[in-house]
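I wish you would study the pair of lines that follows with an eye to the fold:

===
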Amino acid sequence: MQGQPNTQVAVVGGGVVGAATTLALARRGVSVTLLEARDRLGLGASGTNSGILHTGFDSPPGELETRMILRSAELRDPVLERLGIPVRRCGALLRPRTDADRATVEGLARDGLAELDEQGVLRVPGEAVTDPVAYTRALANAAEAKVMTGARVEAVERSGDEFSLGLASGDRVRCRVVVNCAGLYADEVARLAGDDSLAIYPRKGEFFVFEPPDGTPLERILLPVPTKRTKGVLVFPTLDGKVVAGPTAHDQEDKEDWSVREEAWGEVMPKAAAMLPSLEGAEPIAAYAGLRPAGRDGLNYAIAASRACPGLVNVGAIRSTGLTASLGIAEHVVGLVAEQGVRLSPEQELATARAEPSEGPWWRHS
């Protein structure tokens, strides 16, 4: 096999999970190359979400997703501080509206992550908002690893204990282990390696951005009662003082359709106005859509070494909590990479740096 660069691990996908994994591996002394199909990091699902860092107060106990969220919360503050990543620690409120809501809310007040006040409102002080694009790029920059953009993987060949990845540019990358963090395309990357265990489809989340109604800043994230399928429509502040309502949860097949549907307004705004009445009649200044990589047949947080292809670690079906859970996922993946025979050094201290600002508000697809 021929090609440059040579690296121990190739991480495919430059979203927040891929960037976090690259940093975690680099801090353990691993030679790692990050491959991103787009021209910049963080422009896919990672850069088109809510930017909310969740606490996991409403996540099912014991599930891998929940464990990754809770572990990330333990790891996050030193990373935010050292890398200068912007964050607004605003907390969240969940106000029940029906008897069924009240019963659900009472069950969510557990583990000290959320508490009921005297009016029956659930308060979640640990919820926060960040700039997801700046977050992603800060993690990648801190890794000081080789980053290749415009590097879409089109072929995965294995010979002996080595991979050769063919890129759309004609370049080839040789490595011992492939970590597949390709988001919407994780199933396609896995199939290139002979692994058909993943089936990913896009779940579209559409958002509307407003100036603060009546000029009054929104002080807290406003949450609905979540369901098993989705966290529902939220209303939340951004770092730059705007108010966002969304998302929808529209399942589709087209992985390249990032448009906001006409129906989205009717799916979002009645629910948003019920939580923040001053949004009634407000005109948005922007709208955007994100495509979350959902797994078919209930597949969620499919993080494991491939059974079909030795040396391949899949990190697929990471849905809307990927931003929140990224640091915990990365730590977990480092362990899986070690099981593939990659030697780890003691973890290096994270250097102090400043996050690269987004080119304008991230919610304008920066």
Summary: The mean pLDDT is 93. The domain at 9-90+127-199+296-358 is CATH 3.50.50.60 (FAD/NAD(P)-binding domain). The radius of gyration is 20 Å.
